[in-house]
Amino acid sequence: MTLYLRNAQPNDLDNLTELMYEYIVGFYQKPRPATEKVHALIQTMLEEQKGIQFVAEQDGKLIGFATLYFAFSTMKADKITIMNDLFVLEPFRHTEVEAELFVHCQNYSRDHGYAYMSWITATENKRAQHLFDKLGGVQGDWVNYSIQ
């Protein structure tokens, strides 16, 4: 079984949408966004202007994805990436797939001249935090907030 990591492509739309629903609804138990909104988000990432999505494919099936958004850091006066998503299907958790997707994002950020890659994860997602610690991630000095 060969693992391929690659940029998402237009023909991935339906399979990537289902994978994103597994992530949003299945893993994080959040409300299911409208399909049109998910498709619009994927299309934005396919244009690679505001971000990019990578997929992990094994035996012709998508088994994971990662999303990088492009942003800027005033402190660095430079462009950065924000890894907003890193998800693999349950049978592939605790395997090399997670680490390889993470490193793929890290390499993309470095190879394309971004100052750094940042990310957040849910406070209760201890498994992901362990992975990030193992891969050299360092918790930052900032407290994250959001408002609706």
From TrEMBL:
PROSITE patterns to which the protein is assigned, alphabetical: GNAT
The UniProt record lists the keyword Transferase: yes
InterPro entries assigned to the protein according to its UniProt record, in alphabetical order: Acyl_CoA_acyltransferase (IPR016181), Diverse_Substrate_AcTransf (IPR051016), GNAT_dom (IPR000182)
UniProt keyword terms in alphabetical order: Acyltransferase, Transferase
Every N-acetyltransferase domain range: 3-148
Pfam families: Acetyltransf_1 (PF00583)
GO terms for MF: N-acetyltransferase activity
Gene3D superfamilies cross-referenced by the UniProt entry: 3.40.630.30
Record protein name field: GCN5 family acetyltransferase
Provenance organism: Paenibacillus ferrarius
